[in-house]
Amino acid sequence: MDDELPLKPGPQADAARQVTPAGPGPAPAAPAADPESGGIPPSELQVSRASGEPPRWGKGTGSGEEGVFLRGPQPRSSDIARLLRICADFVRGVRGLHFVGPCVTVFGSARFTESHPYYELAREMGQRLGRAGFTVMTGGGPGIMEAANRGARDVGARSVGCNIILPQEQRHNDYLDLWLEFHYFFLRKMMLVKYSYAFVVLPGGFGTMDEIFETATLIQTGKIRDFPLVLMGVDFWRPLVDLFRDSMIPEGTISPLDVDRLLLTDSPDEAMSRIMSSATELGLIWQPRPRWYLGESHLTAGASVPGSPRSARSAPR
Questions:
Q1: For residue 274, which of 262, 258, 259, 257 has the smallest C-alpha distance?
Q2: What ranges do the domains of the chain cover?
Q3: Secondary-structure class of domain 91-282 per CATH
């Protein structure tokens, strides 16, 4: 791995380019959503009407599975069937991501446009991560997610999107090689942690905050170790870090060490230094071998050549 390799031009986004779908099959419409809305929940439709803007990307789902699951006790036959669906989602995620290489996941808002400084920062991080040999994984949407995937594409690195089933009329960005969809949000989050060796978090909303706090909890409880959690956008995240230091530490609800594990920076150099030092300590396995007896002979484990066009592979179903 060498973070100082020269930048090489990569292929630009192509609307006609085929992206490998690896998502599940059709599922019931989202509960409590108007069938005419295509899976957008009433709460988001209310926000949309108040703002006069289209519904925000990813605020809703085309699948009603998780909503039914969270409604409380169901008939035993229904719960067993749902358990099998959860297992199928899990297997699909494991097979789809096993050979994409070591990932770093980049989080952030879908609302930032190409001209925004945070978009430019995320794109630079995607380039730096790609040059270092990482697969760049995001939620697959616009804004920060698009920027990071685009940065990976710039240098010929792998680019992966991973999210729940999107509502109708919403789609992933144009800079992905593999697109994974899940019925269950908690499975999606599990896959991001399982296959990532670091999280890079740029400014975002509740979903981004959820990833920060869940990861911080897993680090705090020792479930994951030597896992860099990098917050980029000092001005944006400073009030949150101040809350940790000025309120939570004095009250004894967290320790200073819990906060010290977070890296707050605007510098891609500093972010990459933290990520690369942890990657070296982990001793990454870069080339797992497909096993013919598991039906994996057709899967590609080799690294892509920077700047070269390539076809998206088919993920196992």
A1: 262
A2: 91-282
A3: alpha beta
Quickly tell me which residue has 């089933």 as its tokens: 165
**Dihedral of alpha carbons 185, 186, 188, 189, sign:** positive
Beta bridge partners of residue 229, listed in sequence order: 199, 262
Dig out the tokens for 313 from the structure.
Answer: 């592979």
- Asked if 299 and 99 count as a contact pair (C-beta separation under 8 A), the reply is yes
Q: What is the pLDDT of residues 229-278, one digit of tens each?
A: 999 999 999 999 999 999 999 999 999 999 999 999 999 999 999 999 88
pLDDT at 284: 58
Q: Is the pLDDT of residue 148 over 60?
A: yes
Task: Give the span between the Cα atoms of 87 and 199, in whole angstroms.
Answer: 26
Greater model confidence, 173 or 48: 173
- In this model, does residue 10 exceed pLDDT 50? no
Cβ–Cβ under 8 Å, residues 157 and 130 = yes
Beta carbons within 8 Å of 155's beta carbon, 6+ residues apart? 7, 8, 10, 127, 130, 131, 306, 307
- Of 303, 299, 231, nearest to 266 by C-alpha is 231
CB 233 within 8 A of CB 262: no
**In the numeric block, which tokens belong to residue 106?**
């980049």
pLDDT at 164: 79
Q: How far apart are CA 299 and CA 97, in angstroms?
A: 11
